[in-house]
Structures are given as structure tokens and as C-alpha cells.
Amino acid sequence: MTDILNFLILTFQGLYSIFADLVGFGWGLIVLSVFSSFLFSPLEKWASGLKNDETIIQKVLQPQIQEINNNLSGQEAWAATQRLYNRYSYHPLKAIRTAAFPLLQLPILFLAYVALSSMTSLRGVSFGAVADLSQPDNLLFDLALLPFLMTAINIAITFVGSFTKKERIQAVFIALFFLVLLYPAPSALLIYWTSNNFIGLVKVLYQNFRKDKIHTTCINKRKKLPAWIWTLPLCPFVPALFLWANNVAYYPIASIFASILFITIASSICFFFLYLISRKIDTQNKIIQFLFFSFYCLFCGFVICALGYSTILGLFYDYRFYTLICFPLLLTLVTYKIGFRVINCLLVVQLSVSILLFCFNYGTDKQLTPLQESAVTNIPIFKNKPNIYYFLCESYHNLDYVKDVFGYDSTEFLDNIKKYGYTVYNNIYSNSSYTLGTLTNIFTMSTNSAPNSSSLALDASSWERSVIGGGSGNKLLEILKQNGYETSMYFKGSSYYFKSKGKFLDYTDVHFSIRDLLQPIEDTNGMIPFFLNLIFPFLNNAPHAEQDSLNILKKHLIRTKDSSKPQFFVHRLDKTNHTPPIGYNFKQRENFIDSHFYQDGIATGNAEIEKIIKTIEKYDPNSIVIFLGDHGAWTLRGLPLGSSFQNLVLNLSKENLTLDMLINDMFYVFAAVKLPNNVLPLEQFSPADIFSQIFDRLCYQQTKSYNSDRICVKLTQRSQEFLCKKQKQNLNNSADLFYPSKNFK
């Protein structure tokens, strides 16, 4: 029961968070109220029908009961009344039907109360005159105004609606009950519930307005549309929503809505053409009917498989070809057996489940970590201010690991960069298994996960993107700015990493592209980007941004050569890449290794790094240069992590894998650093504390004053998190800072 309640609470919070991220926390409550009113309108209509049935039967029964009471008494009156009830199949308990809808609202009210009261992201958030949505409003001389407003609207409904005297008294008592119950409730709940009541008042007024109009009944009723017309327009939503529901943190909410709108427009056009076909097709001819509907069902199955191909690869890799062939055939056979109407119902049920799952996962993603501030209280003052170059190496494994697992030897490359004074570090593990997480660890200089945001957000990873873009919480850039640095970031124009430039970032090549909005659709099938490029070439991402890393560096050096400020340069090297985030299964690991896709990327990446090193050595030899991998290649992507450490170990053993293999696959990264001659080498580090050590040295503090009490590795898969923690036992033994094979809890 507790699990069901938690699921409903997180689903409600996820739904509200979606609206809050789009329009703000206050307006999100009103939009949620409108949406829930629309969602529960069939339930309200059903309850209204029950009430009308009760009113009608009472009009029939009451005169007869009155007559019985006037003519009979005692046992005879009771027996006559029972015979009357039996004649109309009525029981006195059915009188509760008049209060059906208020009673049905109680569980919804309870769910809203628990969900909104437990949302830490509402603390301190204002909306209009309400200072704090998590507290009572206290707008009426230190008394809460919203509960009285809610009660007034409830009572107004009883006077403008079609209520009997008894029903009106009953409704007033219910309104007063809600006043007492909700008076100490948070303002967020009162805004949501008052908005619901106001919508109810508008509905009653509209119904009264309609009653005053004269309606004429059309003699010729519009012909009902055949059920098969709706099937194909529903099909594209099924695999797409399922995929997005399981990857809420990967896509911005704006992209999800834009993709849904795109599919809706395409489905509407499809529906229009099917409507025209339905008027022309000869359904009387059995042969034509059989051929048409057979092809139609096969095509529907093909559409689902095409837009669900990435999901099929991820879930049914070993049986992918059988799935592509059998599913359309199975859909055709089932449709002939049960009909299009039932198929449509099944599709709607699946869509409803995906929407619930989407809201649940979104709510879970929002509640993973508590709200926390990341402000710099003590700014270190540098005595030495060299230019700093930080290159994030995409999916760059430790090169010894690459040699052992992928069979590619980088010994010559390592020898070459060591000649230029670079120290190559072994046993370096990233703190996160994905790029946004690693960048957040770098810029916050901590292992903290992203907190819930109390400001307007556009996606589940909005806080991370805000920090990466130089916004509030970017401790690294704030310290550099306080020390007079000019900060620059280059991501080849891609707006995936952040959407806007924050206050601590001076220059970037990032810009927003319309193509970003269609990313969720592209990921449903690997062929879709090809067709989008073919049909809409103007949508290409970052068409004007420089794409060559060496040229980006050279242009940066030219742009800043006359600057009197020290420079901090960030750039992502992307010659290597991990396994596809969608459509890949860990059972493809050997095929991925044998394809030499990753090895070729390492070879190209090594050559690129050498060119970059030579360029920096030529133009800025006394700078600090950092090459650091963000995470591993993820060849074990799709491995079920389970809900506990014991389940994880069990799943690993079933596949003949070890915990070391999993952690090395995700977190074991390449690290090479060059420091000026007068700066001591770094100790063992992770992305979260590398700049803490560098700043210590720039302040001429050569001791380990950085916060390394805990190194965290975050494993994420479908909103599940596992923290791999190693408590530092001995500060004098830097090798003990992180050993992932120990103490995994």
C-alpha cells in the first residue's frame, strides 16, 4: 500500500513539476488545476449522472412515500415502503449518490496535500502576494485568506447551481468542513484547490447559460467515424512516449513538448487523409476490404516498430529481427480477431501508462537530492595567475585500460606527451557516468548531485545546465572571476550542455538550434536524423560554429592575445564516443569492441591532443593544461542495475561480469596534466577536486587542504542512483583515496 501511495505522490509531483518548469511554480498550480479538472471531467460527469438519477427517482418516490405515511403506520408502513423500493429497485443507501463527487474528491485532495506539502522546492517561492507557497498565506490580518476564498466559491456554487434545499445545506456543511480541514494547509495546495473550485463555478454558470438557449435537434445525425481511422494516428505516440517516459532526465521538457506537437501535427494530417479514404473505399467488396485492412494493419505495426526501433534494440536485441517481422503480423492477426475498437482502447491504455510513468520518473528525478546552495564563502587569492586550459575528453578511458580491453596501444602517444612535461595519472575515476554530471562536479568542485531548482526550469537537468553555463552555483568560474580571469567555453555550438550564458561566463560559441527541439524524435530511430537532414537541411545543429578543435583553440588564442586578463579556456574534445544511449544493449559489447569504432576514435583523439599540445607549447608554454575524460565508453549499457547492491551483484554474476568491470567501464578515465615548472605535481584526484588542488598551488599552499573526505561515483540508469563511496582512511596515502572495488554500499 505504501508503494502505491509513493507512486501516486511522485506521479502527482512529477506532473506538477512539468507545468512548474514550463510556466513557473505559481502558474503551474493553476495549469495543474485546469489539467486535473479536464482529466477528471468524465468522473465528474459520471457523478453528476448519479446525482441526477437520485433526483429523478426521489421525485417519483417521495409522493408515494408521503401517501404511505399518511394512510399507514408502523409495520404496515415499513412493509409498503419496502415493496415500493423493490418495485423501483431502489435502496435508501443510494441517497449517498448526491454526494458522490465531493466524496470522490477527498482522495484527490489527500494526494495533493501530501504531494505539495512534501515538495522542498516550494520553500521560499513566492507567487503574487503570497510570500511562501509552502506556508499559509496570512494575507488577511495575519489570517489565511485563501481558505475563506475557497469556501466562498464553494458556497457560491450551491446558490447558482441546481440544488435542492437539502442538497444546498449539505454542500454548505461540506464547504465548512473543507475550510476547517485546509485552513493550516500550504498556500500551494489552497491555490490549486481554489482554482479547482473556481473552474467548477465557471462550469455551473456555463451550464445555466446553456439551459437558457433553445437547442434544435438535428434530424440527420452525423455519421459515426469508423474505428480504424483512429488506429494509425495513435501508433506513433506509443513507442515515442514509452521511450521518453524512461529517459526524462535526458531530454529538455521543451523538446518533449515540441516533439509531441510534431507527432500530433503529422498524426492529424494522417487522420485527415484516412478520413478522405474512408469516404471512398468500398467496404462492401470483401476482397478489397481484406487487402486494404491487411495492408493497413501491417503498416500500423511497421510504424510502431520504426519509431520504437531504438527501444527494440535496447530491450530485445537478441530477437530484434524477429520482433520487426512478427510484430506487424501479430498486430494484423489480433486486429482481425478483436477489432479496431479494442486495439484503439489498448493503445490508449498504453499511452496512459506511459504518461503516468513519465510523470512518476520526472517526479523521482526531481526528488533525488535535497535543495542545496552552492555559494563560495572564502575566495582564495591566487599569487600566480597562469592561463588555464581544460579539455574535457569525451568518453576517454584510461589508455592502459584501452590497451587491455580494446587492444589499442597508445604507448607512443603517452611517451610523446610526457616529453612536453605532461604527467599522465593512473587510477583516476570520474565522479559521474555522464557528461553533464562530470561537468557539474568540475564546476561545483564537489560531488553533490543536482538539487531541485526553485526558479523557472526547462528540463530535469536544468540545474546542471545552469551551473555549466556559468550560472549561480558555478564555484569554479566564480573563484576564477574573482581572481581576474576571463572565462571562455567552446562546445562547437551545441546547446545540449547549456541554453544560456550565465553571469560567470564571459564568452561561448553555444547557440540554440531548432534542431535541439527534435532530438527526442531523432532518438526513436537512428535513420530519422538522416531524413531530417535530407528534408530540413536548415535545421542542422550549429551550422556556423567552428567544428575543428585545433582551429577553435587557434581562434581563441587570436581573440585573447591582446587581453590583459589571464584566460580560462574550456573545450570538449569529441573524437571518441561512447555506445549509443538508446538502442544499445550490453550484449553487443563484443561486437562494439570488434567494430574498432572506439579504437579509431582513440587514435584520432590522440593525434588531435598531440596537435593541441604542440600549439599550446608554441604560444603559451607557461600555462596549466588539463586533459580529463568525463566517463567511460559504457559498453555495459543496459545491464540491469537492480534496486539494491545485492541485486546489482546478482545481475553481474548472471552475466559473468564483476563489479570492477562495471565501474571501470563507466568511470575509469584518461588524465594528463601539465603544470608550470614552479608548481608541485597534483595528488590523486577526481573531477570534483582537481581544481581545489590547483588553486591551492596557485595560492602557494602546497598542502592537501582540499575537501577529499569522500569521493562519490554516481551510477544513473532510469532514475536509479547508486553511490560508490570510499571513506578516506589515511590522508598520507593518496593511493587510498579511491579504490572502486572496495566498500561499495
What would you say this structure looks like, in words?
37% of the residues are buried. β8 and β9 (720-727) form a beta hairpin. The chain has 3 domains: 2-39 and 91-211, no CATH class; 228-366, no CATH class; 388-452 and 467-490 and 549-737, Alkaline Phosphatase, subunit A (3-Layer(aba) Sandwich). Residues 214-221, 368-375, 450-460 and 703-745 have low confidence and may be disordered. It has 28 helices and 9 strands. α9 packs parallel to α15 and α14 (320-338) packs across α15. With 745 residues, it is α/β, with parallel strands linked by helices. It has a 7-stranded mixed β-sheet with strand order 2-7-6-1-5-3-4, sandwiched between helices. Helix content is 54%, strand content 6%.
CATH-scheme architecture of the largest domain: 3-Layer(aba) Sandwich
**Uncertain ranges:** 214-221, 368-375, 450-460, 703-745
Q: Helix share of residues?
A: 40-55%
CATH C-level of the largest domain: Alpha Beta
Number of helices: 28
CATH superfamily of the largest domain: Alkaline Phosphatase, subunit A
**How many domains, in number, for the residues?**
3
Structural class: alpha/beta
User: What global shape is seen?
Assistant: globular
For the biggest β-sheet, the strand order reads 2-7-6-1-5-3-4
The total count of strands amounts to: 9
Major beta sheet summary: 7 strands, mixed
| C-alpha termini separation | 27 Å
Classify the beta-strand content into a percent band.
Answer: 5-15%
Radius of gyration over all CA atoms, rounded: 32 Å
CATH topology of the largest domain: Alkaline Phosphatase, subunit A
Mean pLDDT over all positions: 79
